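anyone seen this seq b4? input:
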Amino acid sequence: MADVKAKVKTPKKKASKREKKDWIAAYILIAPVTLGLLVFYIWPFIQNVWFSFNDVNKFNMSTFVGLANYKEMIGDKEVWRTFGNTLKYVIVTVPVGLALSTFLAALLNAKIKGKSIYRTLYFLPSVTMSAAVAMVWKWIYNEQMGILNSAIKAMGGTGHNWLTDSKTALFMIMIVGLWMTVGYNMIILLAGMQGINSVYYEAAAIDGASEITQFFKITVPMLTPTVFFVMITSIISGFQVFDTVYMMIGKASPAFEATQTVVALFYRTAFDYGYKGYAAAISILIFAAIMIVTVIQMIGQKKWVNYD
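predicted toks r here
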C-alpha cells in the first residue's frame, strides 16, 4: 500500500494569471541587467578567450595559432617580471590596507564627536578620479618642487628621487593605492562592526573584559565575514592595478621595469604594439591567477570565518 502511494504523483498546481504576470514583470525588470552582462562582460570574455588562440593584428584580422601565444608567454621574461611586480603590490597593500581600514573603522565606531566628518574625509579619496589622484601624488613626489622633498629639506634632510629610483618607486605607488582604498574598505568594515549585537559587549563588560580584550575576543571574530569580503575584493583590485602606475611612471623612467604591472603589460601589448592575440593570453593569465587565489580563499575561509 505504501508503494502504491509513493508511485502516485501529486498533480502540479497551475500558475494563476496573477503569478504569470508577476513572472513576466520580473523578467522585464532583470532584462536590462542581464543584457548588459551578456553584452559587456560575458561575450567580451568569450571573445577574449578566442583571441588568445589567434594571432590578431591591428586591423582585427585573426589567424588561428593554437597554443602558440601561451607557449610564448611561458618563456617571456617580461611577463613574469611584471607578474612579480603585481604580486609584490598585492602582498604589501592587502594586509597593510586591511589593518589600516580595521583600525580606522574601530576608531570611528567609538563614541567620538564629528564622526560623520571623519567618515567623509576618509572616504573622499575612493571616489576621486584615479587620474587626478595620480597627478597630485606625482607632484607631491616631484624631485625638485614636490611637497615631500621640500618638507624633508626643511627638516635638514636631503630629497630623494622617489619615482625614478627603482628601489622606492613601487612602494610610492603602493602608498597611493592604500590612500585611495583604505577609506572605502573602512566604511565596509565599520558597517560590519555596527552590525554586531551590543549584548556581547555588555556581557563582556560585566565580566570585567577591557576594551582591547573585547575587540580581539568579540569584534575580530564577529567581523571575519566582512574581513573575508574586503580581502577578496582587495586582492582582485590589487591584481588589476593599472591607472596609477600608467599615470605616474613614464616609459623613459629608470624605474619603469621595476614598477610595471601585468595589466600595464597587457595594455601596452594590445594597444601600443598591436599584438591583441598575445595580449588576450596575458589577460587569461591574470584571470587564472585571480581565480586560483579566490578558490583558495573560499576553501580556507571555512577554518577562520565565523558566520554564527
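The chain has two domains: 15-62, 67-300. The chain is about 70% helix and 0% strand. kinda curious what u guys think
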